[in-house]
Amino acid sequence: MTRSQRQRVLALTPRDQLEARWSALGIDHTHRRVRGPETGMAMIRGRMGATGNAFNLGEMTMTRASVMLEEEKALGDVLGHGWVSGRDHRHAELIALIDACAQQEALRERIDSELIAPLTEELAARHAEASRTAAATRVDFFTMVRGE
């Protein structure tokens, strides 16, 4: 799994669910904050029909954080970064911590298989349920041509 895929899953997972699964893994690394967590605004861009020219859709509140694992200083700086929509500082810091831990070879496979894979399945299930709910309200319009 790529780092950006991992970041997406972590950002879309509710914080309480992420904290519970992270603590169940038992990975305990001390870290220090390098930047943030801090909240700001980000410009969201859109495209007409997903293929047209880009335009500024509006602004969105985002929180970011960067952390460094304390015990890894001998091996070099291991920085983790986290971004999340909204103002949840703890969520952004937790994502940054998981990102930093996932950069270590020894932990990456365990994090991907025991944390990210189940969260990905739950995210897909939530998406499928939302799609089914939306499909139930779908109305198909058609035009009937009348003969003379």
TrEMBL record:
Pfam families linked to this entry: PhnG (PF06754)
InterPro entries: Phosphonate_metab_PhnG (IPR009609)
GO biological process, one term: organic phosphonate metabolic process
Protein name (record): Alpha-D-ribose 1-methylphosphonate 5-triphosphate synthase subunit PhnG
Organism in which the protein naturally occurs: Vreelandella arcis
Taxonomic path: Bacteria, Pseudomonadati, Pseudomonadota, Gammaproteobacteria, Oceanospirillales
